[in-house]
Amino acid sequence: MIILIGKMLLSNKKILTSGCGVSWSGQSKKTWVNVLKTLGGNIVDVGGPAVSNQWVLDRAIEHMTQTNNITHAIIQLTSLGKLDVEVDQERINELVTPDSLRNFVIQGVWPSSVSLEHQSKKLWDKWLSSPSLELQSICCKLVLLAHWCSSHNIELVVFQGYTLPWNDIQKSQLCSILNFDIDPAVPEYHASDFYQWHDYSKQNTVPCLEFQIELAHRVSKKIDSVLHDRVTLARQQYFSKYHPG
């Protein structure tokens, strides 16, 4: 993956990350979180594959309020319209197993994402999905999370993985929170030169490793100069070896 520079944890920084498959480090595809871990980042990853913003924010808040040694929190927001569903064996048999793509469970939850293969999801999408209320909930949680992090000396970085349709009031409330330079990441990825290396197999939507290294470079600049220097060198080595010129 990346040419190792010498793996040594940056023990004075403990970083919490939470996001969807764009960031989650527990999959076969390597993400920017994996890159930071490889280069010494002391990271707790509470994200998940195809999960909703409810998961992304709730798991981050839950962990931070139960742990007293987090120094940095990096939140990657995902798209609207995703639905996470608690499952038992009956629901697994009916909802999860037959789904052609979202046929997995994480921590007792089916991250159905935007799948509409089952009739229940089609009905939810038509009659119950409420994007404005979902966006309002995300905004409120971010404002409160930023205040909590500030009062507990935790550096908070929030970036959008996908475009979110904030209204003017929400933009005003979030202007000092959503201040990251990859906003949003996935549309940028699709429009970039990195996309030529995208893996299209199995309806894959996770950005390629080259773009993940770029994200790791931008993220590390926000949190730690030593880690950023390591990512900078690793990025140079990687592209010199695999994409010279």
Detailed description of the structure:
It contains nine helices and six strands. The chain has 245 residues and is α/β, with parallel strands linked by helices. The chain has two domains: 15-81 and 131-238, SGNH hydrolase (Rossmann fold, 3-Layer(aba) Sandwich); 86-128, no CATH class. The strands form two sheets. Strands 2-1-3-6 form a four-stranded parallel β-sheet, with helices on both faces. A two-stranded antiparallel ribbon has the order 4-5. Helix 1 (32-38) crosses helix 8 (209-223). It is globular.
- Reading the helices and strands in chain order gives EHEHEEHEHHEHHHH
Q: Indicate the low-confidence ranges by residue numbers.
A: 1-5
Tally of helical segments:
9
User: Termini separation (Å)?
Assistant: 19 Å
Which CATH class of the largest domain applies here? Answer: Alpha Beta
Strands, count: 6
The largest beta-sheet arranges its strands as 2-1-3-6
Q: Proportion of β residues?
A: 5-15%
CATH architecture field of the largest domain: 3-Layer(aba) Sandwich
What's the structural domain tally? Answer: 2
CATH fold field value of the largest domain: Rossmann fold
CATH superfamily of the largest domain: SGNH hydrolase
SS-based class: alpha/beta
Overall geometry: globular
Helix content: 40-55%
Q: Provide mean pLDDT, rounded.
A: 94
Main sheet specs: 4 strands, parallel
